[in-house]
Amino acid sequence: MDAVALERGADAPQILEKPRPEPDSGEVLVRTLLVGVDGTDHEVIAGRHGSFPPGEDHLVLGHEAIGVVEDPNGTAFEAGDVVVPTVRRPLAGGATEFFEHGEPDMAPADEVVERGISGAHGFMSEYFTSPAEFLVSVPDDLAEWGFLIEPISISEKAVEMARASRSAFDWRPESALVLGNGNLGLLTLAMLGDSFDRTYCLGRRDRPDPTIAIVEKLGATYVDSRETPVTEVPDAYEPMDFVYEATGYAKHAFESVEALAPNGVAALLGVPESWSFEIDGGSVHRDLVLGNKALVGSVNSNYRHFEAAVETLTALPDWLKDDLVTGVHDASNFADAFADDETTIKAAVKFYHQ
Ligand code: NAP
Ligand code: BGC
Ligand code: ZN
């Protein structure tokens, strides 16, 4: 079967011919429909994040998948069921109690593998296998868009973590700022529209631009970081009750504190590389304390967040999915899904037509 993989030492993925996997006991064989590409895939390809499976010369990419059960292999699934796989799996010798609690997303990152990212092959191949417990059932009519469920689940978790940090008092947030107009930022902006009166999205692009068009169609305000740095958002617009960082730009983590209103919370999602820079740590510390503010880091998501994401995806308007997903490419043209240009927002590789 064809698989889209990154070979050690390569700076771009390629198609490799691999044997179709055989499901072990308790595992399901899934025929892949679609696999999305996100900023993390680009970070993996650039060697800034992730790792190869031990002892292997390549990593099959892809962690945002949707597929159809080909062989239920004695599990509770039936052939033809539409499923989405979760990403984390136990590392041999790693922490399994988080999996037993259904919270692998809370395990130490170096005690798990992440399929398609760190230490385990991903889903960007004609078939993949997975233990049944890591497959989420999805209604058939989401088959076309189900590769958006994993990224939506990331924000389900991050928003839940942020809200939980404000649960000790009567928090009534009105304003939310998303940092980053990439696919994760825009999906999250759409999700926040229902629960915040006023939403904003920060980018660094000139108009006309397809991401700014989506921001404005969602009824949100576009903030150009070149004109209005994050620290100036309160004066230029308003202090924010919630900030969601999806740029991976490390300074934003600290600047977010200044953008927050008293009692606000910022969720950090980006995965930057090591970068030393100067900050006024005293002011950040003081602001967090005297403002009752919180910074919450969030990674990955668990089964429950995938289930919530199914609901969220069902409620997203069709125009948003059409505008956000700028390309669905056959596996033979997989390279187009990895284009890193300003016309590509969200792309997916298609293996099989339902
Ligand atoms: P993406 O498509 O690359 O989007 C990042 C966006 O941020 C881009 O649109 C980029 O603008 C914008 N940006 C970067 N630096 C900026 C700056 N200084 N000012 C204004 N805008 C800036 O990536 P993504 O898939 O949306 O993911 C976003 C980040 O979240 C990545 O770091 C990714 O690794 C991380 N992530 C984390 C999790 C988790 O579980 N924690 C899950 C998924 C993704 P331009 O395009 O104009 O350059
Ligand atoms: C994935 C998560 C993963 C994170 C860190 C994200 O792009 O969606 O599942 O935990 O990267 O590797
Ligand atoms: Zn991702």
What does this structure look like?
The chain is α/β, with parallel strands linked by helices and 354 residues long. It has 2 domains: 2-137 and 317-350, Alpha-Beta Complex (Quinone Oxidoreductase, Chain A, domain 1), CATH 3.90.180; 154-297, NAD(P)-binding Rossmann-like Domain (Rossmann fold, 3-Layer(aba) Sandwich). It is 26% helix and 28% strand. It has 11 helices and 19 strands. It has helices at 39-45, 97-100, 149-165, 183-192, 210-217, 233-236, 251-259, 281-290, 303-315, 318-324, 334-337, and strands at 2-7, 14-17, 27-37, 58-60, 64-71, 82-85, 88-90, 112-115, 119-120, 127-131, 135-137, 175-179, 198-203, 221-224, 240-245, 260-268, 294-297, 325-330, 346-350. The strands form 4 sheets. Strands 3, 5, 6, 10, 11, 18 and 19 form a 7-stranded mixed sheet that branches. α3 (149-165) packs across α9. It is globular, with a radius of gyration of 20 Å.
Q: What fold name goes in the CATH topology slot of the largest domain?
A: Quinone Oxidoreductase, Chain A, domain 1
Roughly how much helix do the residues carry, as a percent range?
A: 25-40%
Rg: 20 Å
Counted beta strands: 19
Structural class by SSE content: alpha/beta
Q: Which CATH class of the largest domain is shown?
A: Alpha Beta
Mean pLDDT: 97
Give the overall shape.
Answer: globular
Proper CATH architecture of the largest domain: Alpha-Beta Complex
How is the main sheet built? 7 strands, mixed
As a percent range, the share of strand residues is 25-35%
Our count of domains comes out at: 2
Order of helices and strands: EEEHEEEEHEEEEHEHEHEHEHEHEHHEHE
- How many helices? The count is 11
Cα end-to-end separation: 18 Å
CATH homologous superfamily designation of the largest domain: Medium-chain alcohol dehydrogenases, catalytic domain
Bound molecules: NADP nicotinamide-adenine-dinucleotide phosphate, beta-D-glucopyranose, zinc ion
Stretches where pLDDT falls below 50 for ≥5 residues? Answer: none
